[in-house]
Amino acid sequence: MAIVTLRDIHIAFGMEIVLDKLNLQLHAAEKVGMVGANGSGKSTIFKLIVGRIKPDMGGLIKQRALRIGYLPQEATFGKDRTVIEEMHASVEHILKLQKSIQVVSGEMESLSGSALKAKMRRYDRLCHDFEIAGGYEYETRILATLAGIGLEPELHQAKTSALSGGQLSRLGLAQVLMLDTDLLLLDEPTNHLDLQATEWLERFLAGYNGAAVIISHDRSLLDKVACKIIEVEKRHANIWNGNYSNYIQTKQTVRLQQHREHIKRVEMVERTLDFIARNKDQEGMRKTARGRKTQLNRLLKLNPDFLDKPTDQKTINFSFGKSEKTSNLVLRCEKLGKSFGELKLFSDLTFDILRGERLGITGPNGTGKSTFLNLALGRLEPSAGIARMAKTLRIGYLDQHGDVLDASKTVLEEAGGANPKLSSEQVRNQLGAFLLSGDDVFKQCGDLSGGQRNRLMLCKLVLSESDVLVMDEPTNHLDIASRETLETALANYTGTMIVVSHDRYFLDRVVDKLLVVGTDELGARCLGKTEFVSVKPVYSYYSSLVRNRVEARQEKQTPRGAGRRRRRPAAAADKPRQKTPEELRRFNKYSVEQLEEMITEHEREVSEIKERFGDAEIYKNHEQLAQLQITFDATTAELNLLYKAYERRTE
């Protein structure tokens, strides 16, 4: 059964029609990816579902009492709250239950008799509701969610007004994920997430019981999470079963079939027109020719798009020029180190980049990736060692924030400055390939959107005819089609490339070496650590390497003999005997009465711990809360084992 149904939706903003006769259904528990060109209407569909806008025509049906969590591209917060206070706001219903429990607990102290019994029933109901709502785990979940999306403990007490745009986006995501929801609508959730946080989000979504629709340009995420792809194209929504890779393969097959059908239709119309032309004046064939003409006219009138050629969404289209053969040594790093006060990003980094090599750099946010680029470009002085780029090289640089653009210049002036030899017309033609045409070329750079800035910087790279491309997050703000065009252009580029990226698809396809900064051998954040990978596809190989290390570490930590089977003596082979599971053998020395006493004691301990969770002082102290959660988990696990041991003895 559908939880959301959109029927014949029509939405226009002024003269621009965004959605027309759009039909769509969302179903419970489905994880769906939504793709389409920038501006195709994806975010508009989300705003329609949550009620921020209304359709001009058409209908929207939502399941009664449907709980929706919505993450817009730009999260907004009040300036007075801290990060942890904003997270508490997302579990307000739990905090209200907690307050009610404390109030009722205080009221019971002055009651007796039937009034006390009634109040105790009220207290039990509240405790039950609190437990069902996750009240005993919510603070731990908040801390785990903040850690997962990359907001470190030192930021938890910071005011949201002091956070960067990227940190606010991550806080918005964390807040939405804490909500008790049936449907998540996530608009570009991986913006500003590093790879570790993105992989954490993938695991969260895999374990989430509700439905989720994710607008994303992260193809790896859509491959791992989505069971269906919604493609918003030409004002309609097309549904493709399977993940992103299945969608691409199926769409290519469908496009081929559509082109073949188009050729058949054109040939049929041409044959019919030829028949009419040859027979309209022939004796005995005039009536047949007129009939064919009438049929053809009716067909074309009822199907005005009958002869339309299938076309794909317009996207950027470019290629990089050939690099001149200059120095074989592009970059040399010798014992390179960089620190900012007590913060050490890396040290003793020694390697060379040779002509034609493609180095990718990745790692958690704030671990020194962009800093390394600035050291290589000579924009920063190292704390130790050297980073020397060959002086004969023409270097093209793309900055993820667009700081290399002069905000006061027009698009045409900024692009023209990359290659003064070209005429204004030649520059405009190249800008057109990056979807910057018409009046857009006269806009000031400071007035451009994030996507327009990124396309302009890519255009400048092409115009600069560089020997070395140094790029910091080049896929930011690009839709999937544009990312794939960029990947193709870079695959055919003959020069040298140094690129920082969190796009796993991009790294696997484009680079042949990977420098991972700021993580230990198990993939955990660790400033100062670096690792090189040179087996392609580089990121997939690195990911499997880390996974294997984690599994090996877990095996080493498993107690000796755990899980091993003891060989039964041959003489006993014919005697069917149910063995006590290994985890319950330690209870064999106790009598049934002793087990009953142990169960009673552990039940009492669990009850006391639950009451401590309701203590306001506890949940304000993160260390005490974490320790209490550990104690609760351990006591509950022991109680469950006691239950099992008791059941075996009394069967």
Outline of this structure?
This protein has 651 residues and is of the alpha/beta class.
Task: From the structure above, extract its key features.
651 residues; alpha/beta; Rossmann fold; 6-stranded mixed sheet; 20 helices; globular
Spell out the blueprint of helices and strands:
Elements: E1 2-13, E2 16-27, E3 31-35, H1 42-49, E4 57-62, E5 68-71, H2 83-89, H3 92-108, H4 113-132, H5 138-148, H6 165-178, E6 183-187, H7 195-207, E7 211-215, H8 219-225, E8 228-233, E9 236-241, H9 244-279, H10 286-302, E10 329-340, E11 343-354, E12 358-362, H11 369-376, E13 384-389, E14 395-398, H12 411-416, H13 424-433, H14 450-464, E15 468-472, H15 480-491, E16 496-500, H16 504-510, E17 513-519, E18 525-533, H17 538-557, H18 592-613, H19 616-620, H20 622-649
Helix pairs in contact: 2-6, 3-4, 5-6, 9-10, 18-20
Structure write-up:
- The protein has 651 residues and is of the alpha/beta class.
- Among the domains are: 154 residues, Rossmann fold, CATH 3.40.50; 56 residues; 71 residues.
- Helices cover 43% and strands 19% of the residues.
- Strands 5-6-7-3-8-9 form a six-stranded mixed beta sheet, with helices on both faces. A six-stranded mixed beta sheet has the order 14-15-16-12-17-18, sandwiched between helices.
- Strand 15, helix 15 and strand 16 form a beta-alpha-beta unit.
- The protein starts with a strand and ends with a helix.
